[in-house]
Design a protein that fits this description.
The chain is α+β, with helices and mostly antiparallel strands. The chain folds into two domains: 32-74, no CATH class; 75-161, GMP Synthetase, Chain A, domain 3, CATH 3.30.300. It is 33% helix and 22% strand. β1 (5-6) and β2 form a beta hairpin.
């Protein structure tokens, strides 16, 4: 039996996940783990291998020159913004697919305003000031944007405090 796709969303797999979550009290626990290394000379400054369901990828990051880095690779904040934009875009596509809305165009631009001053000084001012997501589509997505905002994991992570624990393990 062929897979049914709408907006590049595999509806069969999405429905299977929904069914599993509903059968488990609307919960579908998952976990991501990434281990990275600081390189001590040159670019990249940081490197990690990340896994998808089918493959492994090596991601590299550098701080910008203003923070003492080489600026060769994307910055950590660039990856953060990429994660938000890609997650929101695909979540919006999912919501449209679930509602039977066929998209011919969906383009999302993310803009992050931030201040490097608090990174290099003792200021308590916020580092990231704001983030804006601007959409272009062939459809009016007002209602779907509301749904995507509610269901997007990356947007949730940015808008809600998440318990973060930092521990130093022995080498």
């Amino acid at each position: 039996m062929g897979e049914e796709y709408l907006n590049n969303v595999n509806l069969k797999l999405l429905k299977e996940t929904e069914s599993k979550a509903k059968g488990n009290g609307n919960s579908f626990p998952t976990k991501k783990v990434i281990t990275g290394r600081l390189t001590l000379r040159g670019s990249p400054e940081f490197e990690a291998t990340v896994a998808s369901n089918l493959s492994n990828f090596t991601l590299q990051a550098d701080e910008p020159p203003a923070l003492g880095g080489s600026g060769v690779n994307p910055t950590p904040l660039t990856y953060l913004l990429f994660g938000l934009v890609s997650c929101f875009t695909t979540t919006l596509a999912n919501q449209c697919a679930i509602s039977g809305i066929k998209l011919e165009k969906l383009e999302v631009t993310g803009t992050m305003n931030y201040d490097l001053g608090p990174v290099v000084t003792e200021s308590d001012a916020p580092i990231v000031k704001d983030v804006t997501l601007s959409l272009k589509s062939d459809k009016d997505l007002t209602e779907m944007i509301k749904k995507a905002r509610k269901h997007c994991p990356s947007l949730f992570a940015i808008e809600n405090p998440i318990k973060t624990t930092i521990v130093q393990e022995k080498s």
